[in-house]
Request: fold
Amino acid sequence: MTDRHLLDIDRLSDNDIEHILNRACALAAGGEAMQVRATVANLFYEPSTRTRVSFELAAGRLGLRVVNIELEHSSATKGESLEDTVATLTAMGVDAVVLRHPESHRISRLAKAVKGVHLVNAGDGTHAHPSQALLDAATLRARGIDFAQLKLAIVGDIRHSRVAASGLRLWQRLGVPEVRLAGPPELLPERAPVPTASLHDNLADAVRGADVVMMLRVQHERMDRAGWPDRESYSADWGLKEADLEQAAPDCRVMHPGPINRGMEIDAAVADGERSLILEQVKMGVFARMAVFEWLFGR
Reply:
């Protein structure tokens, strides 16, 4: 078996990216799902609702057998290494492991140590979340948005966000000419991560004329409690409100990878409003991960 993995965006070819995006859109439009005879294990070392459930649903729609492993009930609590856990699952006949891990680059090291199993990165520390980036791009493509003309604002905790990290790599590959990164100084990277990105110290500059505004939550779990921003102050300065969108492009759309902290980074009226694509992202998550599984198994 060829050990094809989804570890990060950079390891995908341009053809891989186009295939996955086009296939996700086709499935979302009612295309017939292929059937894959294989077994997938979901191994999540961090909490998840959207990602884990959508991977499980995606696998089920393709006919894959799914095994969910609860961390607190696994041998990791007895000191077993991740490598030994995955090797054990592989020996039992598991064909792919979907892994979420709090340590950046952990899945890349795992890929060097294990053989005979496909690996899918469902988020590793602050490093990468490739399937989220792919589903976000597929959501916009399904809406008919031209990436070559897109002005994208990403607002919030950029520094700690694996969603932003993977997204920036993908948006660059897709030819998005302008990405504005905005947030408090302590939540921004020291410099723009890609040539097409710019840093902004206020919400208004980021949103002005934007075609898409993607809001990100504060990653409290990745910083000391002393560094947590005050909720009310953060909402006043950085929370996206309907009034803020008056300066955006007339048909501006709002995205958020979830989970949402209503009343902090986004008002409920915006999250639930007509500009919001948030639930469309959730729906596309299943189709994009179906496309990932098809690609993973060479279908």
Observations:
- The first strand starts at residue 39 and ends at 44.
- The domain at 9-129+282-296 is CATH 3.40.50.1370 (Rossmann fold).
